């Protein structure tokens, strides 16, 4: 029996205009009436996630944000966090300065741009629908007792390919890398992913992974999809996500989340 539904945002619950359509809202409310808890699991920070939970009528519960780095209840209280500390930030700052590419740091509230700037290339992060107007943080402020959920390099695809080619084997072993879009590379604590984030929630609500339905579309959803009792890929998902899923639903522009909810809850939760 499905007791909890984990839903990705971009490319899944949200359509191409970064909105939740009415069919999906109706279906999520139907799932809640059937007794299912709803958890949004996203690469977005909490500040860009909470409003979507509000639209769905999810008034109590949890969200997994920044690709599993931060797990919070809907009052904004952190119940789990897999962060990057000062040494991590300094490591990636030096890496990006050496390659002449800009770096952003992200926590649950803000996306920061670092000044003084050293790169001739502007960050493309602020062009994404998952972003917002950045706050400024100065390099000297990163020398203190700081922690962030993730660092982000966002550049044209060909430049980002070159950046990835410069990663050291020790970096690959030490950090978790997420390339959820061709122009976006996110660097996280090695324990940070959506599966581990949702495990924190499941510990709170006493639900087993076998009782979870997970819905997603990108590589950063794979660990969670493979571990969940029911896995659903969007029609617009990448091939490896579709190959690992139990069911492929309609696209994010065709209310695919609603289709998946009705398909499973009407069949299996009667």
What can you see in these coordinates?
- The chain has 9 helices and 16 strands.
- By secondary structure, the protein is of the alpha/beta class.
- It folds into 2 domains: 4-81 and 192-265, HAD superfamily/HAD-like (Rossmann fold, 3-Layer(aba) Sandwich), CATH 3.40.50; 86-188, Hypothetical Protein, Haloacid Dehalogenase-like Hydrolase, Chain: A, domain 2.
- The strands form 3 sheets. Strands 5-4-3-2-1-14-15-16 form an 8-stranded mixed β-sheet. A 6-stranded mixed β-sheet has the order 9-8-7-11-13-12. Strands 6-10 form a two-stranded antiparallel ribbon.
- The N and C termini lie close together (9 Å).
- The model has no long low-confidence stretch (mean pLDDT 94).
Shape designation? globular
In the CATH hierarchy, what is the architecture of the largest domain at level 2?
3-Layer(aba) Sandwich
Percent of sequence in beta strands:
15-25%
Question: Whole-Å distance between the termini?
Answer: 9 Å
Give the radius of gyration. Answer: 18 Å
Within CATH, the superfamily of the largest domain carries the name HAD superfamily/HAD-like
State the domain count.
Answer: 2
- Give the helix/strand class: alpha/beta
Helix content: 25-40%
Keywords: Hydrolase
InterPro entries: Cof, HAD-like_sf, HAD-SF_hydro_IIB, HAD_sf
GO cellular component, one term: cytosol
Protein name: Cof-like hydrolase
List the helices and strands and how they pair.
Layout: E1 4-7, H1 22-33, E2 37-41, H2 50-55, E3 62-65, E4 70-73, E5 78-81, E6 84-85, H3 86-99, E7 104-106, E8 111-115, E9 135-138, E10 147-148, E11 150-154, H4 157-165, H5 169-174, E12 176-181, E13 184-188, H6 194-205, E14 212-216, H7 222-227, E15 230-233, H8 239-244, E16 247-248, H9 256-268
Parallel strand pairs: 1-2, 1-14, 2-3, 8-9, 14-15, 15-16
Antiparallel strand pairs: 3-4, 4-5, 6-10, 7-8, 7-11, 11-13, 12-13
